[in-house]
Task: inverse folding
């Protein structure tokens, strides 16, 4: 009788472990899919930002506004004082 | 009784034999034939799937994505499996950006619908888990920066996603991941059931490659080339921007007009050699200075712009013209300043053909630079024994040999870098998928092309080119000093120099003190009224530098920029201001390059090529100016002279392979 109980207990543990593994695997799969989708979305947005802020687009818009790329005499770099 | 006992005994024996037979058969099935039966059962019940590995990404030096691999999907619809048909049709149409009436028509009339797309993961997100909708994922290359630097990045073979050109090909083994293996269970209907315990090998993503390219500088360079074609009616051109202290290539742009269409995917800066014209005068000047064949006061008569040069003892002559006519005598410095062909031809006569040839080879011409690009051209330098009476003068003027823009950039880089020629590099870092750095570029000195004092003198000559009276006077910036040399070469088409067609170029070093950039601009066949390098390539260079100086992020380190006549403005920090986070600032790390690590002129260190293939070994040795003899086949085991020995350039190095 005791052997039957031991057998049943082991079977329940194995079954439980397998079920848990399968459920975890499904969750992992869903998370991977979500991550892939988010990466795709991020890449698409980055591409849009990159194209919208490209010199080709911004330069044309700036020219429409009467702006131009500065010559080297038209900007000043500020140098921070050295740390004491 | 005895009969009964006999019968029972016989029955027992029969039963025992039967049991033994069953046991024997079981042993045969389990122990002897077990493996084959198990394999047959597995083939019916299981299926092994190859799990594709994501290819590594390609980024610029600041982490801007240039090429990424992403999972894309094809969408299959089985109309008979749809549960809420009207709602499903709306969802599919919305996700895939189609008209609902079109999807509804497909669902009504077909048994299976395949929408190939490809659709991104975010597009198909709402379709996941929907009955009757089947998603088939696959990896595809994606270019977030559009066409930026595509000539450098290269392309993939469509059928196998392996690199076929550019960095994709050169670093294919690093970028390609290791596919995984998974075993799935099948039922009688062939449906697959994944099990977490049965992934035999997880896929390993490829490594990420960080190029030395600066995306913003690259965009500036590509725009400059586009404008060159428009403004100067050019048929094409190249731009190379290089950091002379490290050999890192910061921008590489190419434009070629093919049948009226502008092509931007060719890497002609690596593959297409050209006659450099007057930008090469500096290398003959270097040879003269290194060999002490000229003093600062030595001068030659400039023949008032036209000279019939004797080319043999029979009295034959060749006519040499100066575009910028000079009267009187010119020193070597003045000859460079006004780009006098006649003066350079006369000065070149003080060198032997071998000396002039060796000077070109010392600057790296005639050998691939070793940049990580698969089809780099070596250029054309003919050996001195094939020169004629005019060749020395011709080569001094930048003809009769061909260089690639990348070779020219590396050679000018050595002048900016106090005479040390570095191998140009396109790859800054290689990282594994977790971000750990596996490779980081270190400057790789090839040889000392000229002593430091000669490099300083050459830079002084270049300063005069952009000063008043020089050929690139218009290229000078107002507040920062630029030095450089113009070139305008008549184009050779099919072995004939065609009058009225030119290659205009400008080789610049910026700034003059503590150089940070070498810029090579080449304009092919400018068709307007402006055809000289000083009128086309030089203004392009100036505009590019102005844009780079004003850019938000740029490869130029403003802290190191000196301003002639005007100091950088200083901000007086308020006493109560927050302390400056010095640790978060970029720091300039000096090169780990000591004088004793580089070779004297005309000599080179034998590189360690043990363990590499014969092809790689020969390439590495040729790059350092050695000739190669091969003994054996297979992997290289050693060389004679041994690795690390300093040998004269042109020495035959025997490569032993096993």
Result:
């Amino acid at each position: 009788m005791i052997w039957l109980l031991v057998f049943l207990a082991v079977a329940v543990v194995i079954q439980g472990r397998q079920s848990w593994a399968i459920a975890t695997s499904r969750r992992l799969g869903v998370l991977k899919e979500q991550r892939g989708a988010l990466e795709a979305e991020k890449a698409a947005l980055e591409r849009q930002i990159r194209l919208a802020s490209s010199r080709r687009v911004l330069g044309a818009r700036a020219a429409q506004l009467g702006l131009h790329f500065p010559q080297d005499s038209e900007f000043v770099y500020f140098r921070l004082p050295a740390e004491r | 009784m005895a009969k009964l006992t006999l019968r029972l005994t016989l029955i027992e024996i029969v039963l025992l034999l039967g049991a033994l037979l069953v046991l024997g058969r079981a042993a045969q099935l389990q122990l002897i034939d077990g493996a084959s039966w198990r394999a047959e059962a597995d083939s019916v019940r299981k299926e092994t799937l190859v799990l594709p590995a994501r290819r590594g990404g390609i980024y610029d030096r600041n982490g801007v994505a240039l090429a990424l691999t992403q999972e894309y999907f094809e969408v299959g619809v089985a109309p008979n499996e749809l549960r809420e048909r009207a709602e499903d049709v709306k969802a599919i149409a919305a996700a895939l950006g189609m008209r609902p009436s079109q999807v509804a028509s497909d669902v009504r009339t077909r048994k299976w619908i395949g929408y190939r797309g490809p659709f991104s993961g975010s597009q198909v997100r709402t379709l996941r888990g929907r009955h009757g909708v089947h998603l088939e994922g696959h990896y595809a290359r994606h270019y977030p920066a559009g066409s930026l630097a595509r000539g450098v990045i290269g392309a993939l073979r469509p059928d196998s996603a392996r690199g076929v050109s550019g960095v994709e090909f050169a670093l294919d083994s690093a970028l390609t991941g290791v596919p995984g293996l998974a075993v799935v269970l099948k039922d009688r209907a062939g449906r697959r059931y994944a099990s977490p315990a049965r992934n035999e090998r997880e896929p390993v993503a490829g490594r990420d490659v960080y190029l030395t390219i600066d995306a913003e500088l690259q965009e500036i360079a590509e725009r400059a080339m586009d404008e060159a074609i428009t403004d100067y009616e050019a048929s094409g051109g190249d731009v190379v921007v290089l950091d002379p202290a490290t050999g890192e290539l910061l921008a590489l742009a190419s434009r070629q007009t093919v049948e009226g269409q502008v092509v931007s995917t060719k890497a002609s800066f690596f593959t297409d050699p050209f006659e450099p014209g007057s930008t090469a005068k500096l290398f003959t000047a270097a040879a003269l200075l290194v060999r002490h064949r000229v003093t600062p006061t030595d001068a030659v008569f400039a023949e008032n712009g036209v000279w019939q040069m004797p080319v043999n003892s029979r009295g034959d002559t060749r006519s040499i013209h100066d575009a910028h006519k000079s009267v009187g005598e010119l020193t070597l410095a003045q000859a460079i300043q006004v780009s006098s062909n006649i003066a350079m031809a006369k000065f070149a006569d003080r060198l032997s053909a071998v000396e002039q040839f060796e000077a070109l080879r010392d600057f790296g011409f005639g050998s691939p630079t070793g940049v990580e690009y698969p089809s780099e051209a070596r250029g054309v330098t003919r050996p001195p024994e094939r020169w004629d009476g005019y060749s020395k003068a011709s080569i001094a003027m930048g003809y009769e040999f061909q260089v690639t823009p990348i070779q020219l950039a590396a050679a000018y880089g050595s002048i900016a870098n106090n005479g040390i020629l570095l191998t140009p590099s396109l790859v800054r870092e290689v990282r594994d998928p977790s971000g750990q750095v596996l490779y980081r570029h270190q400057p790789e000195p090839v040889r000392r092309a000229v002593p430091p004092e000669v490099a300083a003198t050459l830079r002084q000559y270049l300063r005069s080119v952009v000063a008043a009276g020089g050929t690139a006077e218009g290229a000078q910036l107002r507040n920062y000093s630029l030095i450089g040399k113009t070139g305008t070469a008549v184009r050779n088409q099919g072995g004939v120099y065609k009058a009225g067609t030119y290659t205009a170029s400008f080789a610049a070093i910026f700034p003059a003190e503590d150089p940070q950039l070498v810029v090579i601009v080449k304009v092919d066949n400018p068709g307007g009224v402006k055809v000289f390098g000083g009128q086309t390539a030089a203004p392009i260079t100036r505009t590019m530098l102005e844009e780079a100086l004003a850019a938000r992020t740029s490869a130029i380190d403003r802290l190191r920029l000196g301003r002639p006549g005007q100091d950088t403005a200083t901000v007086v920090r308020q006493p109560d201001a927050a302390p400056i986070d010095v640790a978060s600032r970029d720091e300039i790390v000096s090169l780990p390059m000591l004088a004793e690590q580089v070779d004297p002129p005309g000599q080179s260190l034998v590189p360690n090529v043990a363990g590499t293939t014969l092809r790689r070994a020969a390439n590495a040795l040729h790059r350092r100016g050695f000739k190669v003899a091969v003994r054996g086949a297979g992997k290289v085991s050693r060389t004679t002279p041994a690795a690390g020995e300093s040998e004269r350039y042109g020495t035959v190095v025997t490569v032993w392979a096993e």
Chain B has 18 helices and 30 strands.
